[in-house]
Amino acid sequence: MARLPPFRIEQWMDEYQPTAKHDLGETCSASLSIDGLLALSENKDATASDILNSAAIQDYGEIRGTTALRNNLSRLYSTKVGTPLAPDNILITPGAIAANHLVFYALIKDGDHVICHWPTYQQLVTVPESLGAVVDKWHSKPHDNWLPDFEELKAMVKDNTKLIVLNNPQNPTGAVLPKSLLVKIIDFAESKGIILLSDEVYRPLFHGISPMDKDFPPSILSMGYNNTIATGSLSKAYALAGIRTGWIASRNKDVIEKCQLTRDYTTISVSKLDQAVASFALSPDTIHALLSRNIQLAKTNLELLDRFIVKHDEFCSYVKPVAGTTAFVKFERDGKPIDAVALCKAVHEKAGVLLLPGDLGFGDEFKGYVRFGYVNQTAIVKDGLEELRKFMRKEFDDLPVCE
Ligand SMILES: Cc1ncc(COP(=O)(O)O)c(C=O)c1O
């Protein structure tokens, strides 16, 4: 078994985020305080101490996650579907990062083959590799609105393909795998007996596609195939990364039991205080206002980013995101990709703006790409783009390009 390689995005954020004056790298919707969450809620009688006290005494609590939180999640996965998802089919984890890790650890063994939708969060490739799997990347195509090609997926499957990993909505592109493609993937995976894992941590932050659209993507759990797993958390769409609360949900109870077997060794239980905040956020009194705040923030800020791209279209291009919090922007000069690491380091040093170099985060095939996180507070995004504009005017011509 290989050891885990450095997690390049996390290292970059750790190094550059604390000293950035203008954070255009953040992938969480502008994070809320408990008071901010209470102010959004329709439950005007609730107080911070009510939330804390709902966690009662500070024992380990319910090992797999509190009933209140799992009931709320069960309700969310059960709307508009024929078969509700039982709370027992959900495990609470410390964030989606732990959820993904547990799924891989529970299911993948030496010699397995895994296919992973790409580009995406590095973890989804390197963890199964570290467990001895061969991972092949199923590439989204920038020229096709970041859609991957279904025929390519079919050709990639082998006799030992254990898992197909999707990230929907996708980090870093902000694209979605549309319903019509998901239907094909599900039918195909079912015919081959392959398990589908969908990292849905950016769900349901849809701001450029309407739920009325015939291709609006449902959760992977809502598509009638038992061997599906969704991971998610409160971090991105719900603006509460600090409570480190995520989940694994599956239609297949056997998968949940396998994950729990591993989870007993790593987690015992998740903080009761964190889960109390999460339950409050996902309760019917709060979730609607919370999501509409974040979707509105995404729409407003994406218009600012879009204006920036249009204004600098000589150097920048992108496929406008329809969901999530990130945009993947290509910077070129004289038809050559800019050295994105040099750009991001210089803009941090000279203008205090945090961005993420695409090749560092997602590999050499993304030379010239830069990931923006644009669902921070509007004032931060506005000021950051203004500083970036000034930087571009003064410094862009001197940046190295990739040969
Ligand atoms: C696709 C994806 N999955 C999982 C995570 C981990 O999120 P968390 O552990 O905060 O839920 C991230 C964080 O950036 C992500 O982008």
Automatic annotation (TrEMBL):
Pfam families: Aminotran_1_2
Aminotransferase class I/classII large domain span: 49-358
Superkingdom of the source species: Eukaryota
One Gene Ontology molecular-function label: transferase activity
SUPFAM superfamilies reported for this sequence: PLP-dependent transferases
Gene3D superfamilies: Aspartate Aminotransferase, domain 1, Type I PLP-dependent aspartate aminotransferase-like (Major domain)
Keywords, sorted A to Z: Transferase
PANTHER family assigned: AMINOTRANSFERASE FUNCTION, HYPOTHETICAL (EUROFUNG) (PTHR43510)
Protein name: Pyridoxal phosphate-dependent transferase
Organism per entry: Neohortaea acidophila
